[in-house]
Amino acid sequence: MKYSKIPLSQTVVTLCKTHNVKHIVISPGSRNAPLTIGFTNDDFFNCYSIVDERCAAFFALGIAQQLQEPVAVVCTSGSALLNYYPAISEAYYSNIPLLVLSADRPKHLIDIGDGQTIKQKNVYGEHVLYSTNLKLDLKDKEHKSVDDELPIMRSIENKLERFLGIQKDIQSHNESELHDAITIARLKSGPVHINIPFDEPLYETVDELSINPKPFSITDRTEKVDDFEIKSLLDVWHSAKRKMILVGVLPPDSIEEQWLQELADDDSILVFTETTSNLHHPDFFPGIDKMIAPLNEDEFGLLQPDVLLTFGGMIVSKKIKAFLRQYKPEYHWHVDLNTANDTFFCLDKHIKLSANTFLKSFLPLVTHHTKSDYRDHWLKMRQKRRKLHDEYLKTIRFSDFTVFNTVLKSIPKQSQLQVGNSSAIRYTQLFQLRKDVTVFCNRGTSGIDGSTSTAIGSAVVNKQRTTFITGDLSFLYDSNALWNNYIPKNFRIIVINNEGGGIFRILPGHKNTENFDTYFETKHQLTAKHLSEMFGFKYYKATNEASLDEVLKTFYNTSKQPKILEIFTPSTINDQVLLDYFKFIK
Predict the structure, then answer these.
(1) Residue 152 has what pLDDT?
(2) CA dihedral 371, 373, 376, 382 (to 10 degrees)
(3) How far apart are CA 425 and CA 402, in angstroms?
(4) How far apart are CA 501 and CA 411, in angstroms?
(5) How many CB atoms lie within 10 A of CB 509?
(6) How confident is the model over 286-296, as pLDDT tens digits?
(7) For the whole prediction, is pTM greater than 0.90?
(8) Do strands 492-497 and 437-440 pair parallel, antiparallel, or not at all (unpaired)?
(9) Is CATH 3.40.50.300 the right assignment for the domain spanning 3-199?
């Protein structure tokens, strides 16, 4: 097997292998050649070549999102690693383990006027869990220049001892930093940055390793249940007549069915679930905005919880945020291994456990269910909302709203749905999805920039077929995502093209002006057709309900290439249809 001749490169590759980091996303470059040589010559690794670093990082994020284990991205020096930043910030706020391996020039070659050199040390600031700069290997010529200044060391033996001693210290430092960084990425579920200086020559190879890393104990994360903390919650829980559980982003199967049923059986509990929570029960409350938006002040008072228990990641619904910030619960407990956001400005306890471990430890201690009409009252309200929802669909013309209704019902059974940000995820929240469809969305920073790349990365490693729904601006913004040789043939993209950023028409502002059209909504006449042809996708188009129904009859069928369906909706009515919806269900 071929190895880079550079010991530092050998060390990085070997320790990635030791830590079972199998997926390596590489962007072509010269300074990172030693790493590319090492990773691509070892069959242990699954290597991907993605030219655009921004797309590469989001592609890696999609893989890590599915596997929940570190995935490495490898780039050359200079502006290359700056293009990783959007995905790194998303990984940081979504608790996704990314391992950033950036090649760098030696310190003495930085800020002397060479190309593709920037100050790479700590470049990601507070958006990584750990940042380290590895040390450059010594070279013979460097050793000689040091010895020229130390005339007392003249013998060959002393020179060699000095050289090997310094290199041993460098090797020990590099091994320790690599172990620490990869361990943190895995145990704390987030991005880490390892900056790696290489001196030329970069392309020399050898047939044997010149390093022999020290054995390190690889730590697995264990959850420690604090029995005292758990029991301290019981008095409040037993006495509260209105308990609300709000669930944000969670991977599928995060909570066992028996605990979900236990929660559903308690009359004093409402469980509000977002689409991204991947939780389902007949007595839970998906479609939060559908419940919250029509309420008046008196009804808000009736909904206000005594205790708010939150699980999972970021919350999509602005309406539930506004409600809980105004009608604060007396207690807010958040359960999460890593972080607890004070989203509603009333957080008083962070329980550092996974949701399932907490419920498994807590619910068996609950001795009785508090008598309350809290759940039953809102279940009746939920039924009214759903009836009005269905009635409204019969009254409106073809629009974003009707498109999401049709498309979401068409998603294949036992499949995965990736959703773009902005309007796409907010519309999706208004509809009930089947239990057999798992849902993912980049809600860490909620940006539109890498949703397509993330969806493709996910599709490469997950065992389900994947459909990605996105808006036109998000799709066009991340169009380089399609420049990818690994896209599965059963991957499907649905682009809702309303000729601009339609969500801005819903927000307050002066609409239908040149300034608004250009700088807010960003009107355009672009389509996905030519991109589809260039990148080898089969292209479909729909402009009304009849053509959409016809396309969907065969869109998910087996094919020799991935497919894109572009649905054109009338931009001038979408906002009014949505605003009228909330009035109608009120």
Answers:
(1) 47
(2) -140
(3) 15
(4) 24
(5) 12
(6) 999 999 999 99
(7) yes
(8) unpaired
(9) no
Query: Is CATH 3.40.50.1220 the classification given to domain 227-377?
Result: yes
Domain segments of the chain as ranges: 3-199, 227-377, 396-584
- Give how far Cα 125 sits from Cα of 101, 120, 182, 284, 457, Å: 15, 10, 18, 40, 26
* Same fold across 227-377 and 396-584: yes
Fold of 396-584: Rossmann fold (3.40.50)
> For residue 517, what is the DSSP state?
I
Q: 72 and 186 in contact (C-beta within 8 Å)?
A: no
454: helix, strand or coil: helix
Residue 267 CA to residue 258 CA, distance in Å, equals 16
**Whole-angstrom distance, CA of residue 498 vs CA of residue 9:** 49
User: Residue written as tokens 């990082």?
Assistant: 57
The predicted-structure confidence for 541-575, as pLDDT tens digits, reads as follows 999 999 999 999 999 999 999 999 999 999 889 99
- R_g of the chain, CA atoms, integer Å: 27
Residue with tokens 């104990």: 217
Do the Cβ atoms of 447 and 421 come closer than 8 Å? yes
What is the DSSP annotation of 115-146?
TT----TTTTGGGSSEEEEPPPPP-HHHHHHH
Residue whose tokens read 């109608």: 584
Query: Measured between alpha carbons, how far is 106 from 502 in angstroms, rounded to an integer?
Result: 48
Q: Which two tokens stand for residue 463?
A: 């065992």
φ/ψ (deg, to 5) at 426: -70, -40
Residue 507 predicted with pLDDT over 80: no
Q: How confident is the model at residue 144 (pLDDT cuts 50, 70, 90)?
A: very low
Provide mean pLDDT across the span 66-79.
96
